[in-house]
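Desmoplakin isoform X1
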Amino acid sequence: FFKEANETYTKLQKDDETLRKTFTCNKNTPLETLTGLLKNLEKEKERFLENKRQVQTLVNKSRNIICLKPRNPEYKSNNIVIAKALCDFKQDK
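Structure:
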């Protein structure tokens, strides 16, 4: 999960940097250039939606992660915690 989250974060940072470089304009930018930028942004919309899906998947996965040792020793959980193993556990005899 954490590897996937870091990869997604890095990808989003690169995409943000690329978008900021590609789609720059000011009040003196000609209308034709702005129209072209708008068309390119419409093409980028699918990438935005894919990134949104990826982030939402990570958010859903993060809800299943539990803190094994609370950082605050005064923290008491009254809820039942269901833990899933990340791998099979075999006890040696």
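The chain has one domain: 1-93.
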